[in-house]
């Protein structure tokens, strides 16, 4: 299970990598969020609160993320495809 320091580091890395970027594609797999469109939104920053991540987007939208027992975020270099 990711601990608070890991979640804090994840928030910092997400902000460094994506802060100010416009989302070109996004996929939310939670049934209640499956119709939410994030494409075109600007990612502001990620913030950790304990073991929770809050992803802030332009227009005041926040996405709450909890990594659960084995969740993670991965950042890949531009132009590099994520492993299938």
Write up what this structure looks like.
There is one protein chain. The protein has 84 residues and is α+β, with helices and mostly antiparallel strands. It has a domain at 1-21 and 41-69. The protein is 18% helix and 23% strand. It has one helix spanning 4-18; strands spanning 43-49, 52-57, 61-66. A 3-stranded antiparallel beta sheet has the order 1-2-3. A hairpin with a 3-residue loop joins β2 and β3 (61-66). The longest helix is centred in the first third of the chain and has 15 residues, at 4-18. It is globular. The two termini are 24 Å apart.
Topology:
Blueprint lengths: L3 H15 L24 E7 L2 E6 L3 E6 L18
Antiparallel strand pairs: 1-2, 2-3
Radius of gyration, in Å, reads: 13 Å
Helix content: 10-25%
Q: SS-based structural class? A: alpha+beta
* Helix count, DSSP H or I runs of 4 or more residues: 1
Give, in spatial order, the strands making up the sheet with the most strands.
Answer: 1-2-3
The count of strands amounts to: 3
**Principal-axis shape:** globular
Low-confidence region ranges: none
Task: Give the terminus-to-terminus CA distance.
Answer: 24 Å
Q: Average the pLDDT over all residues and give the rounded result.
A: 88
Order of helices and strands: HEEE
DSSP strand content? 15-25%
Q: Main beta sheet, described? A: 3 strands, antiparallel
